[in-house]
Amino acid sequence: MSTSPSKQLETFPNPRVGRAYEIRFECPEFTCLCPKTGQPDFATIRIRYVPQATCVELKSLKLYLWSFRQEGHFHEAVTNQILDELVAATRPRSMTVEGDFMVRGGIHTVVTASFEDDASVNPVERGDVFLR
Amino acid sequence: MSTSPSKQLETFPNPRVGRAYEIRFECPEFTCLCPKTGQPDFATIRIRYVPQATCVELKSLKLYLWSFRQEGHFHEAVTNQILDELVAATRPRSMTVEGDFMVRGGIHTVVTASFEDDASVNPVERGDVFLR
Amino acid sequence: MSTSPSKQLETFPNPRVGRAYEIRFECPEFTCLCPKTGQPDFATIRIRYVPQATCVELKSLKLYLWSFRQEGHFHEAVTNQILDELVAATRPRSMTVEGDFMVRGGIHTVVTASFEDDASVNPVERGDVFLR
Amino acid sequence: MSTSPSKQLETFPNPRVGRAYEIRFECPEFTCLCPKTGQPDFATIRIRYVPQATCVELKSLKLYLWSFRQEGHFHEAVTNQILDELVAATRPRSMTVEGDFMVRGGIHTVVTASFEDDASVNPVERGDVFLR
Amino acid sequence: MSTSPSKQLETFPNPRVGRAYEIRFECPEFTCLCPKTGQPDFATIRIRYVPQATCVELKSLKLYLWSFRQEGHFHEAVTNQILDELVAATRPRSMTVEGDFMVRGGIHTVVTASFEDDASVNPVERGDVFLR
Amino acid sequence: MSTSPSKQLETFPNPRVGRAYEIRFECPEFTCLCPKTGQPDFATIRIRYVPQATCVELKSLKLYLWSFRQEGHFHEAVTNQILDELVAATRPRSMTVEGDFMVRGGIHTVVTASFEDDASVNPVERGDVFLR
Amino acid sequence: MSTSPSKQLETFPNPRVGRAYEIRFECPEFTCLCPKTGQPDFATIRIRYVPQATCVELKSLKLYLWSFRQEGHFHEAVTNQILDELVAATRPRSMTVEGDFMVRGGIHTVVTASFEDDASVNPVERGDVFLR
Amino acid sequence: MSTSPSKQLETFPNPRVGRAYEIRFECPEFTCLCPKTGQPDFATIRIRYVPQATCVELKSLKLYLWSFRQEGHFHEAVTNQILDELVAATRPRSMTVEGDFMVRGGIHTVVTASFEDDASVNPVERGDVFLR
Amino acid sequence: MSTSPSKQLETFPNPRVGRAYEIRFECPEFTCLCPKTGQPDFATIRIRYVPQATCVELKSLKLYLWSFRQEGHFHEAVTNQILDELVAATRPRSMTVEGDFMVRGGIHTVVTASFEDDASVNPVERGDVFLR
Amino acid sequence: MSTSPSKQLETFPNPRVGRAYEIRFECPEFTCLCPKTGQPDFATIRIRYVPQATCVELKSLKLYLWSFRQEGHFHEAVTNQILDELVAATRPRSMTVEGDFMVRGGIHTVVTASFEDDASVNPVERGDVFLR
């Protein structure tokens, strides 16, 4: 696997296919550019998903998030795009992506988008089963 | 777009219309005046909404909140007014506005008001799907 | 309005009658006396309610809480009394009062009492719609 | 009332019988002995209950918890025993006892046990009605 | 009982069989190796379960977690394996295992897997009954 | 000893006269009245001293702080008065009293006053020897 | 005393002239305008001083800080101006003013300026004598 | 070594005699009895020392602190006694013991006592060389 | 002033030349590249300085930090370079730059470099005069 | 450079030799074995140093700390050994190593050891020049 930015998300077979379990990532090192001003934006990207046949490979996820570094993106659009591309690559039972952007104009913005595969049964996706 | 206070909220087309996703803003720089004493009040305004056809533009939101600076408003009324005006401007699936006001008379006050468009389907609006 | 302790709770008309929205107060400056020993007790009183026709006026609430200063009250009883008197004065859709008392005998006590007007519809009163 | 350790839990009449309200205690000063090694164990005991006819008296609760000081108890058993004895003494609508034990073998253990009186109606016992 | 690493989980009879109560462990001292690079990984393992006939013995749990020290394991697989082996050893009503792994590639990963015995009734397993 | 408010501070002989060691008290349950408005003020009183021949008795300190409950005092004056009266009663090597008052007019006030007995040698009174 | 914004700082006689003690204020409700853009700025102003003959009156301090609300000021200049004007009004032994401004351009700015009256002896002004 | 409470503190040779380095212990599991009422007291004991020829052995320290469990001790006296006995057993270059006792009468008490061997050179004992 | 990345730091005249006061910036939005792997690094840059004739202009500081975005730099070198370039541009009495880098290889790195102009008198630069 | 555990610490030339600046590392992923029981110990290792001619290379530091994984070490000795070996490899102006070990026997232990090269001038090594 290369170590340059890449939109290519790699996957590996889910090691425990029969169970609806959850994987969470917190990625505080996300940056892209503002499409209007060209200035850098910074965010923490949080991903939570219940895999089906495949899991996303951690290093390819890092390179994928890196690939946005020199691209222009609006907050609302890029959060949905990351969700769409992760869903396309991994076909999960369900997935939520949260973009938590640093303050601009005195306002802190967080965008949260979710996908749910209606054909899958997903009892784990209820917030109350996770440990605090 | 001007950079003076304005009640005019601007919007842009929702980049992902088909999905019920959430946008949150935290605005700690809100101030208005007490209608009885004329003295300044300070609050953090928190906004959470699921857009339908349009999203509120971040800079116009900043100018909108600025427009209250020299106006007299009661805590309960101004929180509901911000909700009503944001709903009128953006027609969201659902929206919640919270006014978190600084201590007066030894008492800390928080007012929270919500709108839900009955015609929309909004599975995201359940508190348990957001990442912690 | 006077500035002496008073059991008289004042109200004002709810500025947004049609909406079930929430008002929260945190009052860390509550003190009364222990009915058995006469020694001072200290508590934070937290109030959360959904108004109907009237809201409680903030300054009268301060004077009302002040009125307990030289009275003897047990933790369980005084929390319920504050709820009963606030409900009688404001006739809310729903209300919760929490008395969070300082450590006595190495034990920290919190008493929480709620009222719900069965005739009102109150979808806001679900904990998951408030912003964190 | 004496001030020596005692298994005798004292009660007083619930001052607001008609209402399902909650009383919480946090007791960070609990210690007993390990039945296998005889060495001291330390825990915070948290109690939450909705009273029916009687409430537990605070000082007798302190003496009751003190009574475990020189006794040998396993974590899982002692948490359930405290719940059983408090339920027997106070006959609550519902009660939860949590034993939060200090680290042993690099592992932090928490045991949580609940009782619910099926004959009582207890709408307060839902976690979302309490103030944060 | 020996004090060397061991996959053998020991149990003892549940001291309160009739009640659906919860036991939680937090184990911040977990380490294994990355199967690809051979480098050490570190995690906090959190376990939450409602026992049926038996409870897991604390010291054997410590030795069990120790047994992974020199083994290669992927994050997703090892969390599920710990759940499977704890379920096999204790036959609980329900169990959740969370692997909270230290940052790799700027990304913090948490894996959460749950088991529920469909034949058991388990009202305690709702997140809202536990004390905060 | 009575349990009514008292300006009489009781002392006991310092159990370790030869050593310059420190005693700290944090008392979050202080209240007095505003001399101008008659309204209640609340503060946390923090006391730090190096004893000489005598130490202040804890229960008499509680009754002493209680004695301010119905008296009118300004923030700056009452903090110095507590220091003066504690110094007079205990004749310490050194003492610091801090009055940390709750918000008034949106402003949080802390007053800190110190006494040092020039005739005593007090190497402990340097901030860098206390544990964090 | 009026309740309108005023540059006039009022003082009262220091109640304990002979002692070098400290008074601290934290004022999170400061706002002024950016001189370049006219947009609002927000800051927390922290003041720490050792009085000489006079103390600053709390309500006049509130009105003084309010007086900046519609004025244009740079961060560095306004913090020094507040120090200069407070020193002129109160002639303290020493004083420090800190302006802690909200994020602009992704950068959080804090300006701290101090005054020391060389003619006064001020042993209290060493950071290590204050309680933590 | 036995596992019963013992006043006998064991030591081992300092592994790095030539260097003035620091060892800190935090022991949150200390309990003794109040000499006046016989009721339990609880404290966190913090120890910081620079060893000379010997270091205190960790398990014997645990058994030593356990030995106070059924003894009556005042806060000020027991903190000094622990310092005296640790100094006698280990002959350190310097040592500080802090007893941080749980709230009694609404007041939180901390006692801090230090020893310094005048014959030793101890540059490490300055607070500014330790990592935060 | 342009809004593109620039090594050109702009300054403005110090508004209070006669006083040694401090200006602090916290900039959590710094990113550059690893010179060995080309992968992105992220840091928070903290700057603290006492100005002499000029202050650094905030917007030019933002553009200056932006200018490192596509450049390769080692942690130790880039922190010193930022200090050197800020000192060259502003000629301060003293300045400290801290680079607080995100975790790499399980290790969190912070580099802190300081400059002091020996010809200036700088009593403010002692840590104990700043408000906490 | 290999990726297996190694006692060989690699260095690179200090990029700013003329300046006494500080480098700090926090390494929460340290584990070794107890020499008496063979059971694993876990610690966070914190390193702070002012380089002279060379700096320690980050990846070799990671491999160096890894090399203790299967070795038996006492807390006091291993902290001093890490300091001695880092000093031998990098010849710094000054260095401090802190071993912060997880709870054993209910006691949390921290060992802190420092080295100072008397021939070097090191004004940066005073705690008050670092940013908080």
Quick rundown:
Chain A is an alpha+beta fold and 132 residues long. Chain A has helices spanning 58-66, 75-90; strands at 11-13, 22-33, 40-50, 54-56, 94-104, 107-116. The first copy, chain A, is globular, with a radius of gyration of 15 Å.
Care to describe what's here?
Ten copies of one chain form a homodecamer. With 132 residues, chain A is of the alpha+beta class. In chain A, 19% of the residues lie in helices and 38% in strands. Chain A is built from two helices and six strands, in the order E-E-E-E-H-H-E-E. In chain A, the strands form two sheets. Chain A has a four-stranded antiparallel β-sheet, with helices on one face. Chain A is globular and about 45 Å long. Mean pLDDT of chain A is 91; it is low at 121-132. At the E-J interface, strand 2 of E face strand 2 of J. Strand 6 (107-116) of chain C pairs antiparallel with strand 2 of chain D.
List the helices and strands and how they pair.
Ten copies of one chain form a homodecamer.
Chain A: E1 11-13, E2 22-33, E3 40-50, E4 54-56, H1 58-66, H2 75-90, E5 94-104, E6 107-116
Antiparallel strand pairs in A: 1-4, 2-3, 3-5, 5-6
Search tags:
homodecamer, 132 residues, alpha+beta, 6 strands, disordered C terminus
What structural class do you assign from the helix and strand content of chain A? alpha+beta
Helical amount among residues of chain A, as a percent range?
10-25%
Distance between the termini of chain A: 35 Å
Radius of gyration of chain A (CA) equals: 15 Å
Q: Which oligomerization state do the chains in this entry correspond to?
A: homodecamer
Number of strands of chain A: 6
* Shape, principal axes of CA atoms of chain A: globular
SSE arrangement of chain A, N to C = EEEEHHEE
> What's the arrangement of strands in the largest beta sheet of chain A?
2-3-5-6
Detail the poorly predicted runs of chain A. Answer: 121-132
Largest sheet of chain A: 4 strands, antiparallel
The largest inter-chain interface, given as chain pair and residues per side, is: A-B, 28 and 27 residues
Total of DSSP H or I helical runs spanning 4+ residues of chain A:
2
User: Could you tell me the mean pLDDT of chain A?
Assistant: 91
Strand content of chain A: 35-45%
